[in-house]
Protein 1
Amino acid sequence: MSTHVITERRTAAAEGEIVVFHIGMRVNKWRAVRSWLPVFKAMGPMLKELSRDKESGLLGFRVLFAGPRVPYIVQYWESKEKLLAYAADSGKKHRPAWTAYNKAARKAGGAVGIWHETYVVPAGGYESIYGNMPEFGLGAAYGTQPVGRRGERAADRLKAA
């Protein structure tokens, strides 16, 4: 992740359809550490596995927090097919983690929750702008370009995406 601030106004260089995947957890019972800590720790190895495999389809991600109980990750994927293939592959880290969560969740009495949302956004359905920022979000996943190449206004960039 670059911290170099780009002082010109830029926009993501994404072309065509994009896939945005949000995945997270919610700690419902703080004292049930044995229930939620394994869920929290499972994501790191998956992200390392995906980041090492350039053919996986993961283009970039950002770890965020929606308050102290809800860590989540925004991911950018090359295609929904690659996202779904990773999720279903029994030879990758996701399937065993999902199986372990389901087994533990039955015993944990709601101590930890998990969630995900997948957005498949067609060309023309997204736009971005970054001013005085390092590459971030969609721009970090796809790279950036000067705003003028897509249009100075958000409405112009939405048409050009």
Protein 2
Amino acid sequence: MGNKRLDDGLLISLEGVEAVGKTTQLWRLKRRIEALGQEVLAVREPGGTAFGETLRDLILHRVQAESGLAEFLVFAAARAELMATVIQPALNRGATVLMDRFVDSSLAYQAFGRGLSTAVVDQINQLVIENRMPDLTIWLKGEPFAIEEKDQLERRDAAYFKRVEEGYQWLYQQNPTRWLVVDCRQDPDIIFDTLMSRIYRFFKKNTRGDD
């Protein structure tokens, strides 16, 4: 938690390939944390703002970027708007922010998946988020569940998603203390209890006033 400011709220990101249950768990977490008396903001990437949702529709449903760099820069633009206008203001007032994807997705999908330089992707990411990394990143790991309607990213081949998974594994190894890795094929209630057990530790730590 080295880059967490003293007056910040809590920033939690959920990561993993498509259809592993991120959105389901995010909304369950939101309801439970709100029941603890905390303000909670739940947002998705790309999206969360009018600008971001427009870019999401463009890149996921309308056209496919042939350039991996172009694809990444679209996501980065949406993230910049979201960070400046939604996420950081919420953190500044002490809210808990739950992210359905964040900076790690860019490294997994555009760096490992599409072959961009991890250094370039990370440099732009850090500029966009002003070095404000998540306090906790939850990786729902494993084979995705079957889905009928797929967007542009979800239609890519198995080799692409194998590289994405390798990207997530590499990211976890860089800073394992920031990550909580959970098998997505477990019972959803077991997954939820595991996530809340880890999140409770953050609230208890903050209540005690520990660093």
Protein 3
Amino acid sequence: MAKLILSMDGLALNETVLTKERTTIGRKPHNDIQIDNLAISGEHAVVITILNDSFLEDLGSTNGTFVNGQSIKKHFLQNNDTIELGKYRLKYINEVTQQTSPADFEKTMILRPGAMSAAAEPVVTSTPAPMATASPSPAPAPMPTPAAPQQRTAPAAAAAAAPSLPLGVIQILSGGNAGRELELTKTLTTLGKPAVQVAVIARRPHGYFITHVEGAHLPIVNGKALDTQAHPLSDHDIIELAGVKMEFFLKN
């Protein structure tokens, strides 16, 4: 489980485990991590955690948010990153082996004519079937006696019984990229316009979920604005994001 360790001048002050989907940081008391200092804005930043991964977003703070010495607006956190807020430091610790790495993320899709790149084709690694050893004799080899079927172990049986999740696809319905499709092969796929409206679609074992990441307006699904929590997507849901309509569907 990921966590943030708050410190100042090398002295650890407290530790916060990232169990919530949104962990807010700021000077006001309602924040999950309250830093009572005038250099910190009332609502300074937020950490959005999905599965084992966390995004840091600056909420328009007065003095800015820095990670490892660099000013950021939105940042994908990695183990041992240091978030700098004035004189305070937040150390991000995530020692869990993550299912994804930064390279596994789709780059943010800029939804304007001609700017959306086609989704990269997934790399399929196949193992060739073992070659049968040819017999040196020209005579046909005798038919082997069929071996008794091995009893399937419980984990293998459970894996075979578990239904596989159909591949999710996003199809653009409006704008210059209408008709384009993006297969959701990644664990997390980011969509939208940076600094305007950004959402992330997470591929989980039991379905696909959309979560608001950036922007004043929340994504709309089937004509209804979402809240800040993850929302499950159903086959043929219509999503409105950054002024573009798109359809989510499951490919059989």
